Amino acid sequence: MAAAAAVAAPAGVEDGGPRSRGEGAGEAVVERGPGAAYHMFVVMEDLVEKLKLLHYEEELLRKNNLKPPSRHYFALPTNPGEQFYMFCTLAAWLINKAGRPFEQHQEYDDPNATISNILSELRLFGRTADFPPSKLKSGYGEHVCYVLDCLAEEALKYIGFTWKRPTYPVEELEEETVPEDDAELTLNKVDEEFVEEETDNEENFIDLNVLKAQTYRLDMNESAKQEDILESTTDAAEWSLEVERVLPQLKVTIRTDNKDWRIHVDQMHQHKSGIESALKETKGFLDKLHNEISRTLEKIGSREKYINNQLEHLVQEYRAAQAQLSEARERYQQGNGGVTERTKLLSEVTEELEKVKQEMEEKGSSMTDGAPLVKIKQSLTKLKQETVQMDIRIGVVEHTLLQSKLKEKSNMTRDMHATIIPESSVGSY
């Protein structure tokens, strides 16, 4: 548990208590940087770790027969109904773990009331929820992860959980380390003399006794040539200890190179022998099957010829019937073409007939209808009234003209009398 806490510490909280993930989520929503779309995945992974610290598998999942959610369960849409039920169940359990009573969500409960109750409990813990409640109804998204993460942190605070510093195991250093490259030998580096020797075990260890015997023979051959015999002053116990110390380093790993042509040739010979042995067994079966198939084909050919000879007249009749059928089809197509043309003409004639009928109906209705006569009488009376008015106006105009003429005439006579009177008076003088 300490190792798990140490691993999860950098992602979620610092030493001394759980850190608020809600503030980070709020900042990510406000800033909306390039990684804001993936921030809910990080929050969801932290939530899973916090739920494991709260032992939700034993206390919640097993009691309610629920499957454990994945690391990105509430971050991606999979099944909105199932995700919403899981969200309500986890939120109710976390609120109860945080020391506040809360009823579990039932199947027929109002989802809006459940969401409002969860948000009210979240605000009582001092957390902000500046988003519409409809964001939680889908059962997934950054707001769902934020709410569950805040409730998990409150539950961890209530049980008094604190993060501890990680403890690293102390590794004991070996006294002597031998590089593996120096201890490994390829097949080409092994001397041909050691290939024929027997090995003690299946791990390709070279027998130390054989090496000792070979070195002893070589030493004896060389010492025979020398005049003086060299004697060793090394202690046998020290020699045996040195041998035991060096013995693990004398391990020879013989690697078989798959690209070697000798291995390929051996494989080809093995496959060839296997193919030849299998061919001997299957060749007889194949020959027998071939003979049976050939005999069956011959029988089928002979029967086919016999049937053709017996049914030749029927075939000729069938061909004649086929020819008659093709001719009948051609005549039918020609007749069908004429019928289609005549139907088109008939449709055009019927359309024209309908138009003529409609015009006749309109004319008959107009002839039998008395409305036009009434309109004509009304127009005549109007014309008579207008003519009377025009006659009156004409009389008035004639009267005014007559008066104007009489007036002009009287004026002219007066003027004339006025001019005649002075002339007579002048002549009298």
UniProtKB/TrEMBL annotation:
Residues 1-27 are annotated as: Disordered. The keyword Coiled coil applies. GO terms for biological process: intraciliary transport; non-motile cilium assembly. Keywords: Cell projection, Cilium, Coiled coil. It comes from Nyctereutes procyonoides. The lineage of its organism: Eukaryota, Metazoa, Chordata, Craniata, Vertebrata. It comes from the Eukaryota. Residues 1-11 have a biased composition (Low complexity). One of its GO terms (cellular component) is microtubule organizing center. The keyword Coiled coil applies. Belongs to the IFT57 family. It is found in: Cell projection, Cilium. This is Intraflagellar transport protein 57 homolog. Residues 308-366 form a coiled coil.
